[in-house]
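Hi Y.,

Following your request, here is the sequence exactly as I used it, all 521 residues.
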Amino acid sequence: METIIITIIAAIIGLVIGFLISKMLEKNSAKGIVNSANKDAEKILKEAKKEGESIKKDKILQAKEKFIELKAEHEKVITSRDKKIADAEKRTKDKESQLSHELSKNKKLNASLDEKLEDYANRTEYLAKRQEEIDKILNQKIKQLEVISGLSAEEAKEQLMESLKETAKSEAMTLIQDTVEEAKLTAQQEAKKIIINTIQRIGTEEAIDNCVSVFNLESDDVKGRIIGREGRNIRAIEAATGVEIIVDDTPEAIILSCFDSVRREIARLSLHRLVTDGRIHPARIEEVVKKTSKQIDEEIAEIGKRTIIDLGIHGLHPELVKAVGRMKYRSSYGQNLLQHSREVAKLCGVMASELGLNPKLAKRAGLLHDIGKVPETETELPHAILGMQWAEKYGEKDEVCNAIGAHHDEIEMNSLLSPIVQVCDAISGARPGARRQVLDSYVKRLKDLEDIAFGFSGVKKAYAIQAGRELRVIVESEKVNDDRAGSLSFEISQKIQTDMTYPGQVKVTVIRETRAVNVAK
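Below is the corresponding structure, written out as C-alpha cells. Let me know if you'd prefer a different format.
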C-alpha cells in the first residue's frame, strides 16, 4: 500500500518537475521568436522607409510636371483673353471715331438745312409778293381782253364750258358704265322673274317621234300581195321611197323604218293607197309614190302657212314657209322640230314683251332659229350658221339673222334678240319630258334621289319633287325622334352631295308626325 502511495507521489512529483521544465523551455523559445520578429520588423521598417522616400520623390516630380502644365495652360488663357480685350478696345475706338465722324457730318447737314430753310422762307416771301403782282397784272389783262374781245368774263366762261363738254361726256360714259355694273348685281333676280312669268304663260306639249312607223293591215293575206312575186313589190316600194319595210310575224302589221319622217310618211300613205286600190305592182307603185310625194309637198307648204298665221308672222319668203312646214317631219333628240320651234317662238314673244322689245320680230327669230336642221344637203356647217345663211339669202333682217346664228354661240351676239332666242331654246329643250334623252336622265335622277333616302333606317316614304330640287322624306315617328330627324336631314344631304351630280341645289326636308287618335262612343 505504501509502495502504491510512494509510486503515486513520485509520479506527481515527476509531472510537476516535467511541467516546470516545459515551461522553462517554452519561455526560452518565445524569447527567441520575439527576438527574430523584432529583427524582421526592423528590416521591414528600413525597407518601407527606403520605398517611401522613392515614392515621395516620384510624387514630387509628378506634381512639379502638373504644375508646369497648368501654368502653361493658364498663360494661354490669359493671352487669349488679353487678345480679345485688345480687339474689343480696338472696335470700340473705331466706333467712337465713326460716331464722331457722323456727328460732325450731322452738324454740317443741320447747318445746311438751316440755310435751306432760311432760303425757302425768303423765296416764299418773294413768291407771295410775285403772286400779288401777277394777280394785279392778270386782272388788268382780263379787263383788257374784255375790252378787246367785247366779251365779259361770264361769257368767256360759257365758251369755256362748251369746250369742256367732250370731257364731261367721257365722264358721263364712265358713270354709265359704273351704273351698268351695279345693275348687273340685281339683273339675275329680275331675269329669273321674267323667265318664270314667261314659262307660266305658255302651254306646252310633249311630242316624241321615233324612227319607226307601224302600218296596220286588215288581214295577213295582204302581206303576200305587198311582198309580191319573189319580193319584187316590196323591193319596188323600198327603191321608190327609200324606206326599209320589215314584214315579220307581227299579226296584221308591217313596220316602216327610216330616219327621215317625210319618207316614212310618203311610204305609209303610198301603202295605204295601194292596199285600198288593190292593184299592187312595180309600175303602179312608182305612180302612187310620185302622187303621194306631190301631196306631201303641198301639205308641207300648207303646214308652214298655218304655222305663221297662228303665230302672227307676215312677209315670210315662200322657201322659208316650206322649211317651216318641213319641220313637222324632223325631230331633235326625239322632240318634234316644228313643235319645238313654235314653243320657242311663243316664249320669245312673251319674253320680248316683258323686256319692252318687238314681240313680232322675236317670234320670227324664234320660229326660224332651227331651220338649219331642215335641209337634206350634206354640209359640214353647224345648223345655226346654215340657218343664218338661209335667212340672209331670203331677206330676213340682220337682228333675226344674228339671233339664228348666235343661239349656240357660233357667232358673237350683237342684238338683244339673240340672248332671248338662246334662253328660250334652252327652256324648251331642257324642259323635263321634252326630249327623250333628257327625260331618261331626269327620271333616273329622281329615282336615285329617292333610293338614297330609302337607304337610311327609319325612312317610311320619300318623294322627289320640284323637278328634283327638293326631296321630302317621311320617317316613322317610333324609330326617329326630333333630334334624329335633324341629323338625318343633314346625312341625306351629304350623301346626295357626294354620290350624285345635279344642277343647282337639292333641299332635303324630313317630316316626322305623331298622331294620337281616340274615338268617343
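The radius of gyration is 61 Å.

Thanks again,
Q.
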